[in-house]
Write a structure and sequence with these properties.
The chain is an alpha/beta fold. 28% of the residues lie in helices and 22% in strands. Helix 1 (77-88) crosses helix 2 (117-128) and helix 2 (117-128) runs parallel beside helix 3.
Length: 312
């Protein structure tokens, strides 16, 4: 297969992350991003993270993301593989491909559940990359009317990635349904529907479903709403900073990169822990932000004709 992408830019540092800006060789003005990163304090032999795009930009329009300013459709199966090959090509002889856990994260540009090609890509992944221990991870905002896609994804998970070899994440970013509609402006599964889906999705040995909250200072976050809607046996919580958008020096994130958790949030976390919820506080590295690792920023900057004047 001819490599569908040219590497325009590679930014970062080996000890933290590299962000790749890719340009299509076959379509005019199509730019996407992929990333490789570590997860300190674990070294690459224990865990390595590869994050790839699922679409050419994103049609969802989340208020906290740069990718929506640019959208040109789904990535093909060959384009999904092309991103992965760009990264793997750099690590043929340095031991990275022997990592015990290679998280393959579909969370860069795009909403994965809108792309049928991801399903066939996942079906063929183990055959096409023999002896590489990929753990696929799908990050989704849980669009409605994609039930068939999620059913097929479950079949693939059960067949090829059982016993904890697959991770599903619902990116909620708030516990208030009305606020969620404001920041993620598409038709989505309700919390009750996501909770019901959890019972359908999980089989013995599976990882719990992750509920991700990248919280702004304005994002309602209620331990009561979580306890009313979700089971600690099926879901775990991941709380992260909200990354700045293009052109921002600071943003409205509830968490910063000092690792200090606001007292109001800490009390809610303790309450949830008492109810047996597993909670991951994922602060990450400030250096990742400095190298423009937020979703869509490099493609957004490259496709300058797509940038609204109000943003520049």
């Amino acid at each position: 297969m001819n490599q569908p992408f040219e590497v325009l830019r590679k930014v970062g540092r080996k000890e933290v992350a590299f962000v790749y800006l890719l340009k299509s060789r076959f379509e005019k003005d199509v730019f996407i991003e992929c990333v490789e990163s570590l997860d300190p304090p674990e070294c690459f032999l224990e865990k390595w993270v590869i994050t790839i795009s699922s679409q050419k930009g994103c049609p969802v329009g989340c208020s906290f993301c740069d990718a929506p300013y640019y959208f040109k459709g789904n990535l093909s199966k060959e384009e999904l593989s092309g991103q992965l090959d760009v990264i793997l090509e750099n690590h043929k002889e340095d031991g990275y491909l022997s990592s015990k856990k290679i998280k393959l994260h579909f969370a860069r540009m795009g909403e994965p559940s809108f792309n049928e090609n991801i399903l066939s890509f996942l079906q063929e992944l183990k055959t096409n990359y023999i002896d590489v221990n990929f753990i696929p991870s799908i990050a989704t905002v849980a669009p409605k009317q994609r039930e068939v896609w999620f059913e097929k994804l479950k079949e693939i998970k059960d067949c090829f990635y059982s016993e904890g070899k697959f991770q599903l994440q619902f990116s909620l970013n708030t516990t208030d349904e009305n606020f969620r509609d404001k920041i993620i402006p598409i038709s989505k599964m309700s919390f009750k529907e996501i909770s019901k889906f959890g019972g359908y999705w999980l089989t013995k040995g599976d990882r719990k479903i992750t509920l991700n909250f990248a919280l702004s200072k304005d994002s309602p976050f209620s331990s009561k709403n979580i306890l009313e809607n979700f089971s600690s046996e099926q879901f775990l919580l991941k709380i992260t900073p909200l990354n700045p958008k293009f052109g921002q020096i600071q943003n409205n994130s509830l968490l910063d990169y000092s690792g200090v958790i606001p007292l109001s949030l800490e009390k809610k976390i303790e309450k949830l822990k008492k109810e047996n919820f597993e909670i991951i506080i994922s602060i990450g590295s400030k250096e990742e932000i400095e190298i423009k690792s937020n979703c869509g920023q490099m493609a957004f900057r490259e496709s300058s004709s797509k940038i609204p004047e109000s943003v520049v």
